[in-house]
């Protein structure tokens, strides 16, 4: 269940990172409220995951999911560049996440 909580924390991290973009410097009330809610939910799921998972792996996976998801959102929905180097970097982050998931905890 801890890995599920961590995946949910990562998805909500994507939500608040994207929300920051749409809140226009926190000047738009609805996107700002949704961003804040996503932050709280993300941290709550991360805290639940940390009951069972090692801190270093959980934090790296959480930020990795957020980084990859946010980068892909930018590429697909904000017309950000999808250069070979950016895609390679995203792929390396995904490999790192998988390896951290497979690595023994102790």
UniProtKB/TrEMBL annotation:
* Keyword hit for Endoplasmic reticulum: no
Membrane-traversing stretches: 33-50, 57-79, 85-103
Keywords (alphabetical) are: Cell membrane, Membrane, Transmembrane, Transmembrane helix, Transport
Q: Name the Pfam families for this protein.
A: Multi_Drug_Res
Biological process terms in GO annotation: xenobiotic detoxification by transmembrane export across the plasma membrane
Query: How is this protein positioned relative to the membrane?
Result: Multi-pass membrane protein
Where does it reside? Answer: Cell membrane
Q: Name one GO molecular function term.
A: transmembrane transporter activity
* Gene Ontology CC annotations of this record: plasma membrane
Q: Record's family?
A: Belongs to the drug/metabolite transporter (DMT) superfamily. Small multidrug resistance (SMR) (TC 2.A.7.1) family. Gdx/SugE subfamily.
Quote the protein name from its UniProt record: Guanidinium exporter
- Organism of this sequence: Cognatishimia maritima
């Amino acid at each position: 269940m801890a890995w599920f909580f961590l995946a949910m924390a990562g998805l909500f991290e994507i939500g608040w990172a994207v929300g920051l973009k749409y809140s226009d410097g926190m000047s738009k009330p609805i996107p700002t409220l949704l961003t804040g809610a996503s932050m709280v939910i993300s941290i709550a799921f991360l805290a639940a995951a940390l009951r069972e998972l090692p801190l270093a792996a959980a934090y790296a996976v959480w930020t990795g999911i957020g980084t990859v998801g946010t980068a892909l959102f930018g590429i697909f929905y904000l017309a950000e560049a999808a250069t070979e180097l950016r895609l390679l970097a995203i792929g390396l982050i995904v490999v790192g996440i998988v390896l951290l998931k497979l690595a023994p905890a102790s």
